[in-house]
Amino acid sequence: MVYTLCFILFVIGLYGVTCKKNIVKIILGFLIMEYSVNLFLILLGWRKNGVVPIVEPDTVMEYFKTMSVDPLPQAMVLISIVTGLGTLILMVALAIRLYQRYGTFDITEMNRLKK
Amino acid sequence: MTEFLVEFFLVFMVIGAIIALETKDLLSSVISVGAVGVAASICFLLLGAPDIASTQLVVEVLTVIILIKATIRHDLVTIDGDREFFGLTVTLAFLFVFSLFGLRAFWSLPEFGTPGIERISAAPSNNYISSGFKQTGSSNILTAILLDYRGLDTFAELCALFAGIWGALAIMRVRSRKKKTGNHDEKK
User: Fold this and answer.
1) How many angstroms separate the CA of residue B185 from the nearest CA in chain A?
2) Where is the MrpA C-terminal/MbhD domain (chain B) (predicted)?
3) What residues in B contact A19, CB-CB < 8 Å?
4) pLDDT tens digits for B93-126?
5) Which residues between 79 and 108 in chain A have a beta carbon less than 8 angstroms from any beta carbon of chain B?
6) Rounded CA gap, B145 and B141, in Å?
7) Cα(B150)–Cα(B144) distance, rounded to whole angstroms?
8) Which residues pair with A106 in a beta bridge?
9) What kind and span of H or E run contains B4?
10) By the CB < 8 Å criterion, does A62 face chain B?
């Protein structure tokens, strides 16, 4: 059920990327896909009644070994989020350049090569 | 309880995503995506990942600020309608087939709440959890993985981030190259 909802979120983002005319909506579709993929990786590593992977002074190591959630996907997602910010800045810069050249965000109007 | 809360926030995210893509006003779309990101942050907090929740929150605020600053002052004209009919039909058919195959694949996954480290005892995560504190001295296992076990990965990812921002700066450069000899650009 949880995985299915996550996948529905991904498909909504894909719909935004493929079917929208406004370039800002396409960027938003990319963002939604990114959220869903990040969330899916974290969902895969979750353990029922799991504890946070941080060792505290009063932590019993035997209990911690068997109950901690998977820390490896978390490390990957942490960097993926930060890299997503970089790609977002790149996409927004391209969108602003296209707006300055064509005067609109509508991608069907960007057809100067045709004329 | 956690499953129910995560499902609730996922439904909230789906509704927010639909509103963000279908509403006419660009400012409303950007703010809806901000709401989706904050819901994702709460989900991370519920799933035992506080570091990611805080990172997601900060990045979300930056994302909304960048999108508003970049888009709102340029274009308040709404763009109606979808793409041409044939292309839209083909795309929707592709999305339908993709959803069918994807749902089939997702139903074959193991049940939610039983990660791979429970079934595979030789997974590297088990080593990180059991001896990460002893080997690296970091009480946060996430930091141990990021900066010690997989430090080269982190370095390469930061190089990718740097390249992305550098590319954005190159694209947004206002004045092109200084013309010292000849002026080809002015002839156009």
Assistant:
1) 16
2) 11-70
3) 82-83, 88, 91-92
4) 888 998 899 888 888 888 887 777 778 878 888 8
5) 79, 81-90, 92-97, 99, 104-106, 108
6) 6
7) 8
8) A22
9) helix B2-22
10) no
Return the axis-axis angle of helices B26-46 and B2-22, rounded to nearest 10°. Answer: 170
Rounded Cα distance between B123 and B25, Å, is: 48
What is the token pair recorded at A28? Answer: 């938003």
pLDDT at B39: 92
What is the C-alpha to C-alpha distance for residues B149 and B142, in angstroms, rounded to an integer?
10
Position A113 scores a pLDDT of 66
A47 Cβ neighbours under 8 A, 6+ residues apart: A67, A68, A69, A70, B113, B114, B115, B117, B118
**Shortest Cα–Cα distance, B127 to chain A (Å):** 9
Asked if B139 lies within 8 A of A68 by C-beta distance, the reply is no
Q: What ipTM was predicted for this assembly? A: 0.88
A67-112 pLDDT, tens digit per residue, is 888 888 888 898 889 888 889 999 988 888 888 888 777 777 777 7
DSSP B19-67: HHHH-S-HHHHHHHHHHHHHHHHHHHHHTT-HHHHHHHHHHHHHHHHHH
